[in-house]
Amino acid sequence: MAVSVLGFVVPAHAALDVESAKALARTNDCLKCHAVDKDKRAPSMEKIAAKFKGVPDAQAKVIQHITSGPMVKLSDGSEVKHKIINVSDAKELENIADWFLSH
Question: Distance (Å, rounded) from C-alpha 70 to C-alpha 82?
Fold first, then answer.
């Protein structure tokens, strides 16, 4: 949802805070498996963003994934339980999801 104010379109959610998202990703070891533009043990952020491009509830799906600890298949074919992000603040979860999806 967006609101037009004086002819400008303003998103209904807060602006992406890249530095905060990076800090949260480092703290939770996301970058051990994910990189921006290349696959590591898990898909790159670019691949994740492409997968969810045009999906209306993409942010909610990413948040569900990072907070529920589902089984995931790694690049070597093994399966592990995805680490659960250690943060309970909804805004921080939205921000890190948006950061992954922004690639």
Answer: 6
Instruction: Please name the residue ranges forming H helices in the chain.
Output: 18-27, 30-33, 45-52, 58-68, 90-101
How far is the C-alpha of 98 from the C-alpha of 15, rounded, in Å?
9
Q: How far is CA 58 from CA 6, 7, 38, in A?
A: 29, 27, 21
Say if residue 92's pLDDT is above 50: yes
- pTM recorded for the entire structure: 0.84
CATH of domain 16-101: 1.10.760.10
Report how far apart, in Å, the C-alpha atoms of 88 and of each of 8, 66, 82, 85, 94 are: 33, 11, 17, 8, 11
What letter represents residue 97's amino acid?
A: A
